[in-house]
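wait is this the right file?? whatever heres the structure
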């Protein structure tokens, strides 16, 4: 029998120690993979972290092409993953971190199960440009869909720019990711499922499949609009968003 707790512990310890582990030798079912994810995040919560929301994964063609997995996933976000905007991320705390620009939502109402885009809109309190730092705990960033789900969809950290009113039209905003001032990835929020609101609708539906739901106050990362970029210590990363400003951080040692 597969010991889900043991896999969760292995992945949790890999994240805490910044030491990669081998890809899982058994292919978990989707349900099992989400259960391992839940158990591994439970360990973070036991260590003092607080749940702050979720991240969506693989919601754009650019990301699907980069990781070779074409199924949407979601992972859990905790306050321990937050990095202040214009703050510093310690490179040594991660295995092979990459940055990717995303649109973030903060909810004022719960969202559960099958909801319409209109209902999803009505639940948004504010919207922001953000950067997710992903860091697969697997060697060489290689995984199957279920491995990645168990590994909290590679989520490692996030930086959120200034929150804006939900009335900003965020359906097709230009986005660029810069390293030391050079644009290295260019995209649009429309790359996220044609419109990022669809990612929020999908989040509520996919969470319901696992008996979970979005709560008022939750933050939702809608998934990267572009491929992710590896982080190098000593560089300055900035994501710029039309109408939403920017999110930035320094990569420290
Ligand atoms: C999986 C996580 C994908 C996104 O924004 O699409 C993701 C990965 O690339 O490791 O965070
Ligand atoms: Mg992401």
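ok assuming it is, sequence goes like this
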């Amino acid at each position: 029998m597969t010991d889900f707790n043991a896999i969760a512990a292995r992945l949790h310890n890999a994240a805490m120690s910044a030491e990669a582990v081998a890809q899982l030798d058994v292919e978990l079912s989707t349900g099992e993979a989400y259960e391992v994810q839940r158990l591994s995040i439970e360990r973070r919560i036991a260590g003092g972290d607080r749940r702050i929301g979720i991240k969506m994964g693989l919601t754009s063609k650019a990301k699907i092409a980069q990781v070779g997995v074409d199924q949407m996933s979601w992972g859990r976000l905790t306050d321990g993953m937050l990095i202040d905007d214009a703050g510093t991320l310690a490179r040594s705390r991660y295995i092979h971190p990459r940055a990717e620009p995303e649109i973030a939502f903060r909810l004022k109402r719960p969202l559960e199960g099958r909801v319409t885009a209109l209902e999803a809109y009505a639940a948004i309190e504010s919207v922001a440009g953000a950067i997710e730092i992903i860091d697969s705990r697997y060697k060489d960033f290689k995984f199957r869909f279920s491995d990645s789900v168990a590994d909290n969809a590679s989520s490692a950290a996030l930086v959120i720019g200034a929150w804006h009113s939900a009335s900003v039209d965020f359906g097709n905003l230009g986005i660029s990711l810069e390293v030391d001032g050079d644009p290295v990835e260019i995209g649009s929020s429309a790359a996220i499922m044609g419109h990022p609101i669809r990612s929020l609708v999908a989040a509520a539906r996919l969470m319901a499949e696992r008996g979970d739901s979005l709560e008022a106050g939750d933050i939702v990362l809608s998934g990267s609009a572009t491929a992710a970029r590896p982080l190098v210590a000593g560089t300055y990363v900035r994501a710029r968003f039309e109408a939403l400003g920017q999110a930035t951080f320094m990569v420290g040692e």
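The pocket of 2-oxoadipic acid (ligand 1) is lined by residues 55, 57-59, 63, 67, 100, 132, 134, 136, 148, 153-154, 223-224 (CB under 6 Å). so i think its the right one actually
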